[in-house]
Give the backbone structure.
Amino acid sequence: MSLVSSNSEDDIRMTTAKAFKAYAARPGPAPTEALSVLCSLRGIGPASASLLLSVYRPEEVPFFSDEGYRWMMTIRYDAKCYGVYFASVRRLKDRLKDEGHSVPAADVERVGYVISKEVEEARVSARPSRLKRRAATEAPSAPKAGSKRKRATEKEGANA
């Protein structure tokens, strides 16, 4: 956070105002211009920039969170991928609107977060049983030649 805090208050005010003005002028399929403006601040990348834009326009702009993005696609942190994510969220919002549901972009991101956490918890809860089964069926492996574990085992044997 020290890099972010090295921005002056005036720079932050001017840059966010410029970015919000850019978004309002061209909300388009993805806020690439506004994102680029915010990324000019020290310590601000596409994810942090998208958070600032999502606070400015929570109905329209999703936060570029790991969970929200993973829910929509495979994650890479760059402006191009955020554009794809943004367009995916917008398509989902439009589809839900056609079905009579007005859903803020922030809620779409939150759903992605919840789903991601549920999937992660399911993986973690399933993991111990797999490890127990594997441990019961496999004999412990011998240390590889030249490994730290092998050298430590040899050293212990010499000291005994």
User: Anything to note?
Assistant: Helices lie at 2-5, 9-25, 32-38, 46-56, 66-72, 79-98, 105-137, 148-159. The two ends are 51 Å apart (CA to CA).
